[in-house]
Amino acid sequence: MDKDTLMDKITSLAKRRGFIYQGSEIYGGLAGTWDYGPLGVALKNNIKDSWRKTFVSSQLDMYEVDAAILMHPGVWKASGHVDTFTDPLVECTKCKRRFRQDILKIPGICDDCGSPVTEPRQFNMMFSTKIGAVEDSAATVYLRPETAQGMFVNFKNVVDSFHPKLPFGMAQIGKAFRNEITPRDFIFRVREFEQMEIEYFVRPELWQESFEKFRTTMLSWMGSMGIAMDRVHELEVAEGDLAHYSKRTIDFEFDFPFGRKELYGLAYRTDFDLTSHKLDCVDEETAQKIVPHVIEPSFGVDRTVLALLTSAYTEDTTEVDKEPRVYLKFAPSVAPVVCAVSPLLKNKKELTDKAEQLFAILKKEFGNVMYDDNGNIGKRYRRQDEIGTPYCIVVDFDTLGENPDLLGTVTVRDRDTGTQQRIAVSELVNFLKKSLI
Q: Is the pLDDT of residue 381 over 90?
């Protein structure tokens, strides 16, 4: 499938089925902003829950925090963001559109009209705002461009409160903001996004051991989420391209429809940040003061959503002379809807009553369950396939006892294969739980 066609199909499906909408759409939209609909929120929550379970709650040495978005401007001066968090900006000499120099298709030439562009100048990507009641005396602060600094500035607080032994980590999920010159590629490069990050503090001589452990765990987690691992590539970032704080970085790149781009990062930040903020701790083994070194696994929630949509998008063309069956092949543990419950016919009260009772039971147990009686059963299947619902559960006349051998059973249809099986209502909860492991 052509890459542009695939991206258009994913974008269209995401809007049509309530995953992602253009931000402020009724006013023409705002570039680089996107709103998540009900299914998009459910998908993001499943991603974050899985990340927490793997990297935080199941670990004995992790502490989760939630730092403020607005921080003292001294934080960003010390971290180097005020001086170095820049992109090269160029402007078309004719149409006046602005671009990042490094993403032009032809160096020095405008992507839109083909005219020459200006010489690059450095553009700081941090959003600034004012704190104070009077504009002329208000202090300039920034919307955080990353969540990492919120953990570094709370390093001493966590050490004093919990007295953790090295190694230990801090974790955070939160919004970050970057004034991108050219937002593009749907939710890949945006101005407001969500990050899942860890700062793992280690003794300097043991950094490689922790680095490799996180590398392996990150790859394993990607696969368990349903990210297509044949699209994932590890890039060892060259020394000349490393961020100012990093001594070693691996970028986990993904083959998106628009090309191979960074999905996650794993960085060895040395002692740069704690030294910059003049922070240290006492190593309980040696009773000496130490500035720990830092391993940072960094994950973008929005990019994970896009990688999962790309990995899951499937067209079944086996039925000749019919429109392809489009479905999102989500892993059941990630799918925004665990199952959909339907009555075979919506105008038969005995069927709808039973279906509603079953829906209430499953909704209470799993949360993300949908009741669907819109249209005929074939249209419901197609709709749930596009949503990525692993199972459609249908209450029919056999459920009510028309066939005594099938009394108390329902039809359960598998999304990927289209096959159906009869399962006792009493076994449904266990059946679904096993599929979510």
A: yes
